[in-house]
Amino acid sequence: MSRIRVAAYVLRHRGSWQLLVFEQPAHPDAGLQIPAGGIRPQESLSAAVLREVGEETGLVCLSI
């Protein structure tokens, strides 16, 4: 069975739109990434994407 995953495009507007992307120093060949990850059992899609963004970026005051 394949694992269900979520991914987030995190945008902010500061005069113009900005997209959050990052690199992982431990995995330089992975290139630019956006927050993403797997859904836990019984977790909703929205809860999973907010959790992944928080875990990978530290951002917690977000809306979908």
Written account of the structure:
By secondary structure, the chain is an alpha+beta fold. The protein contains one helix and four strands; from the N terminus they run ββββα. Strands 1-4 form a two-stranded antiparallel ribbon. The model has no long low-confidence stretch (mean pLDDT 94).
Estimated radius of gyration: 13 Å
**Rounded mean pLDDT score:** 94
Tell me the fraction of residues in β-strands, as a range: 15-25%
Distance between the termini: 28 Å
Q: What structural class results from the helix and strand content? A: alpha+beta
> Are there runs of 5+ residues with pLDDT below 50, and where?
none
Short description:
The chain has one helix at residues 45-57; strands spanning 5-7, 11-13, 17-19, 36-38. It has 64 residues and is of the alpha+beta class.
Helices and strands in order, then pairings?
Layout: E1 5-7, E2 11-13, E3 17-19, E4 36-38, H1 45-57
Main traits of this protein?
about 60 residues; two-stranded antiparallel sheet; globular; alpha+beta; two-stranded antiparallel ribbon; 1 helix
